[in-house]
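INSTRUCTION: Work out how this chain folds

Fields: amino acid sequence; protein backbone structure tokens

Chain under study, with its fold:
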Amino acid sequence: MDCSLVRTLVAAGTGRARTIYVGHREPPPGTEAYIPQRYPDNRIVSAKYTFWNFIPKNLFEQFRRIANFYFLIIFLVQLIIDTPTSPVTSGLPLFFVITVTAIKQGYEDWLRHKADNAMNQCPVHFIQHGKLVRKQSRKLRVGDIVMVKENEIFPCDLIFLSSSRGDGTCHVTTASLDGESSHKTHYAVQDTKGFHTEEEIDGLHATVECEQPQPDLYKFVGRINVYNDLNDPVVRPLGSENLLLRGATLKNTEKIFGVAIYTGMETKMALNYQSKSQKRSAVEKSMNVFLIVYLCILISKALINTVLKYVWQSEPFRDEPWYNQKTEAERQRNLFLRAFTDFLAFMVLFNYIIPVSMYVTVEMQKFLGSYFITWDEDMFDEDTGEGPLVNTSDLNEELGQVEYVFTDKTGTLTENNMEFKECCIEGHVYVPHVVCNGQVLPDSSGIDMIDSSPGVSSREREELFFRALCLCHTVQVKDDDDVDGPRMSPGSGKSCVYISSSPDEVALVEGVQRLGFTYLRLKDSYMEILNRDSGIERFELLEILSFDSVRRRMSVIVKSATGEIYLFCKGADSSIFPRVIEGKVDQIRSRVERNAVEGLRTLCVAYKRLIPEEYEGICKLLQATKVALQDREKKLAEAYEQIEKDLILLGATAVEDRLQEKAADTIEALQKAGIKVWVLTGDKMETAAATCYACKLFRRSTQLLELTTKKIEEQSLHDVLFELSKTVLRCSGSLARDNFSGLSADMQDYGLIIDGAALSLIMKPREDGSSSNYRELFLDICRNCSAVLCCRMAPLQKAQIVKLIKLSKEHPITLAIGDGANDVSMILEVAHVGHPLWASVIGKEGRQAARNSDYAIPKFKHLKKMLLVHGHFYYIRISELVQYFFYKNVCFIFPQFLYQFFCGFSQQTLYDTAYLTLYNISFTSLPILLYSLMEQHVSIDTLKRDPSLYRDIAKNALLRWRVFIYWTFLGLFDALVFFFGAYFMFENTTVTNNGQIFGNWTFGMLVFTVMVFTVTLKLALDTHYWTWINHFVIWGSLLFYIVFSLLWGGIIWPFLNYQRMYYVFIQMLSSGPAWLAVVLLVTVGLLPDVLKKVLCRQLWPTATERVQHTGSAQPADTVMRLTPLVSPQSPCPTAARRGPHPQEVAFTFWNSEEYATLPPTLGPAQGPRGSSLSRGCPGSGPEMPV
């Protein structure tokens, strides 16, 4: 074709594109200028630091944290001015925190360096001067021609040139990229697939023009110019089907050749290394707010002491006593400068009220605590061999604060294990392997369940429908070494093993195989099928119009052996029916709706014949759009829209996707915990609603409200919204219901169903430029519904829903859970809004969702334990940790503040430097860290048995201002007890047995001893779950304090210039009154907290405290209600052949008393589907009317 014409078509707005010279060979003279370009080598660098920049870069990042920077300033102030405490007291804790964090980050980066080196040094084969050369992967360059053998990993992003397979295809698995273990088929460039040797491929003259690197794994736009002699080059479009990604593995193909186009950090895999935006939990935000409060308290203390100091020194004899005369320079010093210096000195003296070690303790707690999820054997799935994954530990405690759960349906609530149930062709229903009177009829091609058997004319449509199912797909046939030849017989045809990235397609191909038509293979662009008469039919595959979630359909254009050209199209009914001009639409629509009500996934199939001239026009249209480098997807969508029209409807299929085990139990438990569950799916309303009933999202008592396109067509959007608003607010008197009212007995439960089209209208700005009124009204309706179902949702609409809730005035904590790549937009859209959680189910649609998620679980049922148990424990533990840290530092510093009133505001410290330094690092750090890792205030079984306990910690209950103020005042009370208790004790008994008088260091030692024992025993009183580790750490910390004090004050240390604590601790212990003071003051200090707990438990107990008191959450009969519905085993042979899978949704659903019938809003069908029970086993079990 004319290359200049193609260039003209794509020249406008192509932007910057890269040109790659294949094999570094210059194009023939006169074609175009040879402009060598520089690209990065193939080294992968995932490490953050190098040997040279680790220290400065790491220090810069750590001191960007406000707390670290604050303590650095305090340390510098201590170095610059004369302060009452040594710089060591601030420098050593800061050094400890910085060092621990640096070691942790350095070790993690060393592991990344190690992995990078292993990847960069692996051997790669490439073509050089017609020979195969081996070199390290890091030396690969853009333009090199690479050879990859079977089971090897692609070293960079390659354009697929040729393979050892005759049809120019290869099979690839992308498990390391998106987790999809299914084999994907990639296609070589049409003009290069015949090059099979090194010499042939080295003689290739070609250039590749493509887009600049971008991270989307599933999008690629480019073209290749192949030069043959001196003629104009042949231009071929390049898409994602021609691109082999770094990290993918070659399967079932001996070898392939490809040209490197993206290397190193420009590969799509490397571009996906980019870290997600940092999410901050509600606990961390509360912690920062509390820190600001304590900083204000610190400044107030320093200001008060500075003012009082100068008030105290206003009298001359106090400012300049006879024993401490000032020098002349001191007398001449500026008053404001002196006051400012004193203010800084007081800031240094009281700065320990800000807990520097709290941040490192919180980080350690989150990091170590995340392993409890990965180690949980109950959350390990033996069928898949998968366990839970924690991709970020920063949000552990948010699992205990979830208010909304947004879940996908297919693969998340269901197994994504499809089984072909039936097909409907022009009103005639066909069921593979029909069961009659308990006998399986394996050789029957189908049974008409509605009218008489189809006539001769209908038989042609029937066979055309089966051929369409055999041809309209992207299924591959797995090579079977036990089968020789191209499966030329029916016997060999039945041994076909199909693989595809879509379980639906495999189910359809296997289903039509049981109806007499078998798809054999795709070879040399010809698709082979085996018909009922055991004859091989060959169709040339001309074009594939790929499936996408927006069009919701796919098409193929094929040419039969007789020369007829067909376009076969299959897709959702909403995308097929509007494009149909002929066929029995009403009968098929009725059957589709009936199957949807029964929870089956439905697809419609249509076709049209193309005349050669029409096909030529389609070819030109597709060729023009496929070679575009800009807006190719948009142009292809417009082209597909023109091609897929004026179709003839053939029929529809029904595929069943079983509900996951214990999905209903999980949703019921989440609702009882006060969590609102929303299902976001692309399925039909009837299909999704049936699944929602089966999984107990909707109950028999739930009144369904519809906000759908059909409703809006009958009334305006404004009227529908206001009508729904009146309905849901009628019971609550215009007050939004509480999150937990969804299951209340005295209020009507409402369930809302909304479709994608209605959501678009709600989100669309109004004529006056605002859409907030409709959005707020919609949110009010949703808040008052116990469950919401969003059907016919595109992936971006799922993100819109989550974002809408996140931006509402309550700013609730949300969790979005999905299993496939189409669910990733739910998190990518809202990653920068608030603090959404993102969990994923490791499903059959791949691991792209798992890679992008914060947490990944094997099955939906594991969500129950992750939220109600792990989330509950995480929140309880870290909230106690934060409050305890502030409490013990108030106890620590407030006596120092009181002491200034008794020392003339001279900035004399109450405690020795060693004790100032080690209080937060050694004496009180390990007990709270262990508590925050192991505490279980109620048992795991109790939390699973009584989900309502989750409500006690909702809305950040343990870090509210009321709780924070209680802990602060408790610290103030204890500090008053420590200081004045020791003061009055010393006032009356200040002499030891040998007549010596206690000094100020002994006084400070007594206060410090009482404080360490009180704060440690306070934590012991709060501990409900005791193990030998708790005993060892708590009592060991107290023992360590005593041993340290004996050694610090009992030995003369040669490295100290002075030793003011020598013999002080031993002298204190030799005094009987000191022992009495310790016991008495510790008891008085703990008494208010004990009394408060006893009174609150007796008068205003929470649900958790009642459970702790009784030791049991619910009676046994309530436990049974939480178990999943299980129906008796059916004697039907079809049930027997289902193997180990749990019984299908229809059985669980229809045999339950509570869910015996669907409400009238779901359509005409009021009972169970006939094909599973009444049709399958008419004589072997209880029948229900259709």
